[in-house]
Design goal:
The longest helix is centred in the N-terminal third of the chain and has 19 residues, at about 1-20. Helices cover about 35% and strands about 25% of the residues. It folds into 2 domains: about 1-165, Restriction Endonuclease (3-Layer(aba) Sandwich), CATH 3.40.91; about 170-320, no CATH class. The protein starts with a helix and ends with a helix. It has helices spanning about 1-20, 40, 80-100, 105-110, 135-140, 160-180, 215, 250-260, 285-300, 305-315, 330-335, and strands spanning about 25, 30-35, 50, 55-60, 65-75, 120-130, 155-160, 190-195, 205-210, 220-230, 235-245, 270-275, 315-320. It has 11 helices and 13 strands. The strands form 3 sheets. Strands 9-8-10-11-12-13 form a 6-stranded mixed sheet. Strands 1-4-5-6-7 form a 5-stranded mixed sheet. The chain is of the alpha/beta class. Helix 1 (about 1-20) crosses helix 6 and helix 8 crosses helix 9 (about 285-300). The chain is globular, with a radius of gyration of 22 Å. Helix 8 links the parallel strand 11 (about 235-245) and strand 12 (about 270-275).
Length: about 325
C-alpha cells in the first residue's frame, strides 16, 4: 500500500538527517537486495538479504572504513512488540554476517578506490512515527531470545530504539542551531573526540570527522572545535552531550572525573555540558550539577587549590531542548527529500 510505503520512508528520512550531522555518508543504491551466500548456514528459504540503506564512515579506532547496513523500521506505538523486534534482529544478524563475505554487497556499496580494509556492521533502527511510544524499549530488547542468532563472533550489530533516536536527533538539531547562531563553526572545522581506550589507542587522532556507532551509543558524546584568539593563541571548546535521567550528584561527579582523567578540563579549555532531558516534564538538574562540582573539588583537593577551582569554572551546564520529529506520511509521499 502507498500509505505503508510512505510511513516506511519516514524512518529513511529521519536516519539520513540524523547521521549526516555525525559524518556518515550514504552509499547508493537504497532499498536493494543482494544474494545470500550462506543459505545452508542460515537455514532460510530466502535467497537474498535486503539493505534499506547503507552508510559508511572512517573508523577512528580500527584501520579501515565501517559500512553500516541498516534495517529501518517505522512503527506506530502498538507495533513495537517483542515478536517484531525479535524477527528483525534475527534477519539483520543473517544479513550482517553475510555482508562481510558477499562479493555482491561489495560490488554494490564498497568503493573501488577503498585502499583500507573494510568491515560491515548491522543497525536496526526502530523509529516510532506516531511519537506515542512510552514503553521501556531496553527492557523489551532484553527479552529477545538470542540463542537462535546466527551472528558469529567478530560480527557486530546494534539496535537503536525510539528514545535513543530522539536523544541523538536532539543532539544533531542542537548542533545545527548553534551553527546557525555562529556559536559552532562549519562541520568541516568540528571533530568528535575519542579518548584512547584500554589497549585500543585512537588510530589517527583523538579528534575524528565521523562519529562511530560505539560513540553514538555511549553514555555521552563530545564535539570539539578550536577558536583563534589574540596573539596566535587558540581556545579549545568541547560540547559534552549528556543523557540526563534526573540523576544524582554522583552521576555528575563521574562525568567530571572522566573529563579530568582525559585532561579535557585544562587551562585554555572551555567545556559546555549540554544536558538532554529524558522526559519533557523533567525538572532542571543544574543545581545538582553545581553541587557535584563543589563536592568533586572537595574530594580531590580538600584544601581547595585555586588552579583547580578556576579550571572547574570553565565547565558550564545547560539543558537543551528535546527535538521530537514529526513527518506527515502524505507529505512524504508528495515528493523527494
Amino acid at each position: 500500500m502507498a500509505e505503508t510505503a510512505n510511513i516506511a520512508r519516514i524512518a529513511e528520512k529521519v536516519s539520513s538527517q540524523l547521521f549526516a550531522e555525525f559524518g556518515w555518508h550514504p552509499c547508493a543504491p537504497r532499498n536493494t537486495s543482494w544474494d545470500c551466500g550462506l543459505r545452508e548456514r542460515h537455514r532460510t528459504k530466502a535467497s537474498s538479504h535486503p539493505s534499506d540503506i547503507v552508510f559508511c564512515y572512517d573508523d577512528p579506532y580500527d584501520a579501515g572504513f565501517v559500512y553500516v547496513t541498516a534495517d529501518l523500521k517505522s512503527y506506530a506505538k502498538a507495533s513495537i512488540q517483542l515478536s517484531k523486534v525479535s524477527g528483525a534482529i534475527r534477519g539483520l544478524a543473517m544479513a550482517t554476517e553475510c555482508a562481510n563475505v558477499s562479493s555482491r554487497f561489495a560490488e554494490l556499496y564498497v568503493s573501488d578506490h577503498q585502499a583500507q580494509p573494510t568491515h560491515v556492521v548491522g543497525l536496526l533502527f526502530v523509529y516510532n512515527h506516531d511519537g506515542e511510544y512510552t514503553g521501556d524499549f531496553d527492557r523489551l530488547l532484553a527479552q529477545v531470545d538470542r540463542t537462535n542468532s546466527t551472528l558469529q563472533q567478530g560480527s557486530r550489530m546494534y539496535v537503536m530504539g525510539p528514545a535513543q533516536i530522539t536523544y541523538l536527533y536532539s543532539i544533531a538539531q542542537d548542533i545545527t542551531l548553534l551553527r546557525g547562531r555562529l556559536a559552532v563553526p562549519p562541520r568541516e572545522d568540528c571533530h568528535f573526540y575519542y579518548p584512547d581506550l584500554v589497549q585500543i589507542p585512537a588510530r589517527k587522532s583523538k579528534e575524528a570527522a565521523a562519529a562511530s556507532l560505539e560513540w553514538l551509543t555511549g553514555p555521552w558524546q563530545m564535539l570539539r572545535f578550536h577558536t583563534p584568539l589574540a596573539d596566535n593563541a587558540v581556545r579549545t571548546n568541547t560540547l559534552v552531550y549528556y543523557r540526563d535521567n534526573g540523576s544524582t550528584t554522583d552521576s555528575f561527579k563521574y562525568l567530571l572525573d572522566y573529563l579530568f582523567r582525559f585532561q579535557l578540563i585544562d587551562t585554555g579549555h572551555v567545556i559546555q555540558v549540554r544536558s538532554v532531558p529524558a522526559t519533557a516534564r523533567q525538572e532542571s538538574t543544574r543545581p545538582l550539577f553545581e553541587k557535584a562540582k563543589e563536592e568533586y573539588l572537595r574530594q580531590i583537593h580538600p584544601a581547595g587549590r585555586r588552579d583547580m577551582t578556576e579550571r572547574l569554572k570553565a565547565v558550564s551546564y545547560e539543558r537543551i531542548e528535546t527535538f521530537v520529529t514529526h513527518f506527515d506520511d502524505l507529505d512524504i509521499g508528495m515528493g523527494d527529500e
